[in-house]
């Protein structure tokens, strides 16, 4: 009879656990309540299941709900039970990463990797934190490790390409972004990054092609319009540059730098009245641009106009 009851409770536990997992991203508060109910059954009935797994799921839910201090306490409890529980160190690292306590996050990600050298996501997010902290060389090393463990990790290739581009290692950046695009050929961020790299390598026509593809995939990414327009500006094709920026403004009307750059292009076309209107819009959206424009020599021809003097 006891065995039958245990099986019944185990089925009930599994049912609750499954429901809680389903609800974690939909109704996290309800998910926590169901996890706690499942935990109560586990504790009362002494079921033979992964207790640490339950704790980790509850901690993840608490983190999703913004109850980060409580999540950390649960992760620490899991580590008390098993000091070699890499998932708990990783989970804590994610919490500290989210609140930008990068030193703690780096320590905890590295501890997770020390315990489990095949933990691809720990390598990936450690690389992210190192990148955010300005430690580009070390970030590249960990992104490389992530793709060695998980060769189909698209975001690791994409981010690695961006890091190599910032380090000026354009050949390596190109290799990485090509591998990423091999996995997700229509990803707008990867297409954008490919455009950046191609332009740095001096292949402006290929850069244009990649920026245009990026915009086709996602028309709300304002930096694609900016970078594409700047290529035409450098070729002194200001009309084309204005056309590109205008399309960007239509799709991204809150992007202050698009108005600012269109103003600069319009100055070259001597369309001063429209240029002042764009500058006005840009500084309304960004106080930082108002400070920047005062030292921008590209706007010097505009400063003597009545429209500029009246507005600024």
TrEMBL record:
> What Pfam families does the database record attribute to this sequence?
ANAPC3, TPR_8
Q: Does the keyword Repeat apply?
A: yes
TPR repeats, residue ranges:
86-119, 120-153, 154-187, 222-255, 256-289
User: InterPro entries annotated for this entry?
Assistant: TPR-like_helical_dom_sf, TPR_rpt, Ycf3/AcsC/BcsC/TPR_MFPF
Q: Does the keyword Repeat apply?
A: yes
Keywords from the named record: Repeat, TPR repeat
- Taxonomically, the superkingdom here is Bacteria
Question: What PANTHER family does UniProt report for this protein, alphabetically?
Answer: CELLULOSE SYNTHASE OPERON PROTEIN C, TPR REPEAT-CONTAINING PROTEIN MJ0263
Q: By what name is this protein known?
A: Tetratricopeptide repeat protein
Species per Swiss-Prot/TrEMBL record: Ruminiclostridium sufflavum DSM 19573
